[in-house]
């Protein structure tokens, strides 16, 4: 079980690290899905990317893992309006990805799974 949890942690760290970097490399796809009521969508995108990178790195050290995992859970909750907005506006094009209603539902339901994954690594 220990090996599985360690592999899971490495995958989680890489997921958030790469997702965070992607906010900087391909910002337009993220900016296009930020709901209109969120001010400064460009800044919000870069802030989200920076937070994902920082939290990924904080997940590496056991001393900071608990705080990082709870922050990931909070951020995923904060991202929920984006996923709900995508669902309401699907089908839509996000960068090179065509978001169908089915894909939007999958993305929405993945959020609690990602939250549980981060929570599992809090210790």
Give a description of the structure.
- The chain has helices at residues 2-25, 27-33, 41-60, 62-89, 101-120, and strands at residues 92-94, 97-99.
- With 123 residues, the chain is mainly alpha-helical.
- The protein has one domain.
- It has a two-stranded antiparallel sheet.
- A hairpin with a 2-residue loop joins β1 and β2.
- α1 packs across α2 and α2 crosses α3 (41-60).
- The mean pLDDT is 95.
What distance lies between the first and last C-alpha atoms, to the nearest angstrom? 14 Å
Number of domains: 1
Helix content: over 70%
Give the total of beta strands.
2
Overall pLDDT, averaged? 95
**Coarse shape:** globular
Structural class based on helices, strands and sheet pairing: mainly alpha
**How many helical elements?**
5
How would a crystallographer describe the biggest sheet? 2 strands, antiparallel
Strand content: under 5%
Radius of gyration: 15 Å
The stretches of 5 or more residues where confidence is low (pLDDT under 50) are none
Q: Topology as H/E string? A: HHHHEEH
Give me a quick take on this structure:
A hairpin with a 2-residue loop joins strand 1 (92-94) and strand 2 (97-99). It is built from five helices and two strands.
Blueprint of the fold:
Layout lengths: L1 H24 L1 H7 L7 H20 L1 H28 L2 E3 L2 E3 L1 H20 L3
Antiparallel strand pairs: 1-2
Helix pairs in contact: 1-2, 1-3, 2-3, 3-4, 4-5
Descriptors for this entry?
5 helices, 2 strands, mainly alpha, single chain, 123 residues
């Amino acid at each position: 079980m220990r090996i599985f949890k360690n592999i899971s942690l490495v995958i989680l760290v890489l997921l958030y690290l790469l997702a965070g970097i992607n906010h900087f490399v391909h910002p337009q796809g993220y900016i296009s899905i930020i709901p209109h009521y969120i001010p400064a969508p460009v800044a919000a995108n870069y802030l989200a990317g920076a937070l994902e990178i920082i939290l990924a790195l904080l997940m590496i050290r056991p001393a900071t893992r608990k705080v990082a995992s709870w922050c990931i859970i909070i951020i995923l909750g904060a991202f929920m309006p984006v996923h709900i907005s995508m669902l309401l506006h699907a089908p839509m094009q996000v960068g090179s990805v065509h978001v169908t209603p089915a894909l939007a539902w999958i993305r929405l339901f993945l959020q609690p799974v990602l939250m549980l994954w981060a929570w599992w690594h809090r210790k």
